[in-house]
Amino acid sequence: xxxxxxxxxxxxxxxxxxxxxxxxxxxxxxxxxxxxxxxxxxxxxxxxxxxxxxxxxxxxxxxxxxxxxxxxxxxxxxxxxxxxxxxxxxxxxxxxxxxxxxxxxxxxxxxxxxxxxxxxxxxxxxxxxxxxxxxxxxxxxxxxxxxxxxxxxxxxxxxxxxxxxxxxxxxxxxxxxxxxxxxxxxxxxxxxxxxxxxxxxxxxxxxxxxxxxxxx
Amino acid sequence: xxxxxxxxxxxxxxxxxxxxxxxxxxxxxxxxxxxxxxxxxxxxxxxxxxxxxxxxxxxxxxxxxxxxxxxxxxxxxxxxxxxxxxxxxxxxxxxxxxxxxxxxxxxxxxxxxxxxxxxxxxxxxxxxxxxxxxxxxxxxxxxxxxxxxxxxxxxxxxxxxxxxxxxxxxxxxxxxxxxxxxxxxxxxxxxxxxxxxxxxxxxxxxxxxxxxxxxxxxxxxxxxxxxxxxxxxxxxxxxxxxxxxxxxxxxxxxxxxxxxxxxxxxxxxxxxxxxxxxxxxxxxxxxxxxxxxxxxxxxxxxxxxxxxxxxxxxxxxxxxxxxxxxxxxxxxxxxxxxxxxxxxxxxxxxxxxxxxxxxxxxxxxxxxxxxxxxxxxxxxxxxxxxxxxxxxxxxxxxxxxxxxxxxxxxxxxxxxxxxxxxxxxxxxxxxxxxxxxxxxxxxxxxxxxxxxxxxxxxxxxxxxxxxxxxxxxxxxxxxxxxxxxxxxxxxxxxxxxxxxxxxxxxxxxxxxxxxxxxxxxxxxxxxxxxxxxxxxxxxxxxxxxxxxxxxxxxxxxxxxxxxxxxxxxxxxxxxxxxxxxxxxxxxxxxxxxxxxxxxxxxxxxxxxxxxxxxxxxxxxxxxxxxxxxxxxxxxxxxxxxxxxxxxxxxxxxxxxxxxxxxxxxxxxxxxxxxxxxxxxxxxxxxxxxxxxxxxxxxxxxxxxxxxxxxxxxxxxxxxxxxxxxxxxxxxxxxxxxxxxxxxxxxxxxxxxxxxx
Lengths: 216, 756
Known about the structure:
The complex is a heterodimer.
Chain A: H1 4-13, E1 16-22, E2 27-30, E3 39-40, E4 54-60, E5 63-68, E6 73-78, E7 86-87, E8 92-99, H2 102-113, E9 115-118, E10 123-127, H3 129-138, E11 144-145, E12 150-156, E13 159-164, E14 170-175, E15 182-183, E16 188-193, H4 198-211
Antiparallel strand pairs in A: 1-8, 2-4, 2-7, 3-6, 4-5, 6-8, 9-16, 10-12, 10-15, 11-14, 12-13, 14-16
Helix pairs in contact in A: 2-4
Chain B: H1 2-21, H2 27-42, H3 48-71, H4 75-83, H5 90-96, E1 100-104, E2 116-127, E3 130-141, H6 157-173, E4 177-183, H7 195-206, E5 213-221, H8 222-229, E6 233-243, H9 247-255, H10 265-274, H11 279-285, E7 290-292, H12 304-325, H13 330-342, H14 359-375, E8 381-383, H15 387-446, H16 455-462, E9 492-493, H17 498-501, E10 506-507, H18 508-514, H19 530-536, E11 544-546, E12 550-552, H20 561-572, E13 578-585, E14 588-595, H21 606-622, E15 626-630, H22 642-645, H23 647-660, E16 665-669, E17 672-674, H24 675-678, E18 687-691, E19 695-697, H25 701-708, H26 719-725, E20 730-732, H27 737-747
Parallel strand pairs in B: 3-4, 4-5, 5-6, 6-7, 14-15, 15-16, 16-18, 17-19, 18-20
Antiparallel strand pairs in B: 1-2, 2-3, 8-12, 9-10, 11-13, 13-14
Helix pairs in contact in B: 1-2, 1-3, 2-3, 6-7, 7-8, 9-10, 12-14, 21-23
């Protein structure tokens, strides 16, 4: 059984993710003015069109290539002994500590707690009429899914096919698609959990929303 | 009650004056404020007759000082006047100038675009006992006294499409069109039909609209104004402005500020002055035909006298256009001219002119419109050739016109007829010959005879073909005739798509030499120099430049621009951003107009427009295909003001004339092509292609964000987005341009091209 308190404490004990930025190619590395403790940001903007902070520059064949931060965080370590040297692909350059956001914590917990049933191909999906009626009447938790159950209809421009559930038995906790939108192959459609864990998961989500403080 | 109302009006007038003069301190305004304040303070102590007397004196003072302030108006004040919510707008004009009207194509916010207002209206004229209702189509931008859903008169592409639709309706109904330009500029979104594309379509259609068009400019903001402003007579309100760019936009470019920052107010004032945007400037330059004088400090909603005057002017302008092309007009045209000469107050309604045109008059109207626009902006470029050379060139042109007439119109028509008849006869003879010889052939074949297939043909038809270099340098990937100087650098280059596509670094000599600037992993096209195309697309030694002497100038004496222009000329060794030449593509002769990005961003001014028009003319006379190769263009050259904007209708008209004469007009975009040229003479081509490196659009991302508040995705202007939106017809790989161009020349085009 999922121990929510323990899980949350675990995450609270180390509320960050540490990542190493490695050299994507060979080249002579320079770190510019970067210092330990500096704040860096990842790609931003509505379309992630603004590049992240430059943490190092790799020069090869007179071609300087900026190496940028992929996440928001703080610089923990700079492998400054490499400054001015020629490094191989995959050499760690900078270590960044990224504090987890509410959404990241929530999705990490849900990933552990839920079984995700994924779309087999790109199409529009909707629930079978029986399941749909049940959801409308009694909410998501009223639907008990079991292996082989006809739960969804996959629609590709007037061609429709039933989709059978595969995975552990349980109730639907979350729905990740909307009926009019195309879902890519491999994207999650529904999240399923054992019936007795629904309240627990809800509890943990509420606690994350209320207790988690975001770091700048 | 009455005094209270009058007092309110005075307060309103003072507020208006303050709005117009902005933050500027002015003793007259201070005096007005003091006097009004004094009156308000002692109003209650005054008896009724004293109050009326004092109020009348105050009104006189207002009228006097408003006239005085009128003389102090700067161009930027005029910009503030036209943008003021109290400024007259199209609905006021419809109410007060026309006798009756019905709004069509939407009402208020329930319209496909509330910024574009269209109405069928009529003007009633009485002649004795007879009453004539003269119908017109009224089209214009509606600012709606600050109604926010009108977008300040900034029309979306579908609004311009609606305007075009009703222009065509007017053409079918044979009624004149009155357009009223009240726009700060077009709404720069690329959604179908696309801001640039729709303006180009409007211009193209208006160039040959067979009904009289009279336009009145109040706020003429660049492309948005041109979308409905191509007219036989262009009138301008005395307090209006007509400009290539808003003074704020020009100031932002001048000061090089970043998005979201504001340019200093003094610089905006300076730019407004330098751009020569006022009615007087435009009349002096010839871009408007007449100015309609407004009351002091601009016409407002309740200036009924002004509406009367506007009515007279608009009737007179329409009469003049119609009479200039009508068959029976002698005395009426004379009367109108005499009145104009004597400067007599106009009473346009005294003369009755029917406003419908017959077929011959319609044709005359078009040729007059064409001639009118071709005369414009001739003063705005430099041509330093000696008079003898100019005369020689004119003779050469005339010679080509005559040759063209005899060779293509006269001889070819008959020649073609004979050739067709001969072909038909030949086919008949073939059938008879075949029937007659059939029995003999059978006997001959049975005896073992028959023509043997040559050995070479058998080989060619039965064996697999192999690619062979045919000696054409541009055919092979490794033998470009021009190699970019960047290929001389010994360095590696990272493809911008390397993160997503995993492209490895490319060595510059490979990339800019053999690969023609194309990433060999993902196909990304790095921009190349215009010379690359010049030498690698056209046949060797086939390029022959003409009109190279036409030189960009500084017609507005825009301060500091002379030096910049000189620098560009020296850097490139060219006199303008447009190079026009004749060349061959695999033996097919073409006339090419090329806009070069390194010369002031490839911006189009009077010289570039003139060269483009001359090239289109040359292609028409010689019956060659006409190719516009846009290496890059940033838009209209703002330092030339309206001299640049006017190239939009001028060049579009020249292109239309060429296409209607049966030519093939192809446009190929490369690197970045934006704004005015795309929204006119480039965008109107039925065949537009782009090299994969192209970005095409109306306004750049910064301007879109600034004016609409919309964030646009980074690939918004890329060639593939333009293709998806239906703007262009295809995307070409740079290495295949030559073949694709040749293919296009063979498969598309007008009826009169010599090689077809």
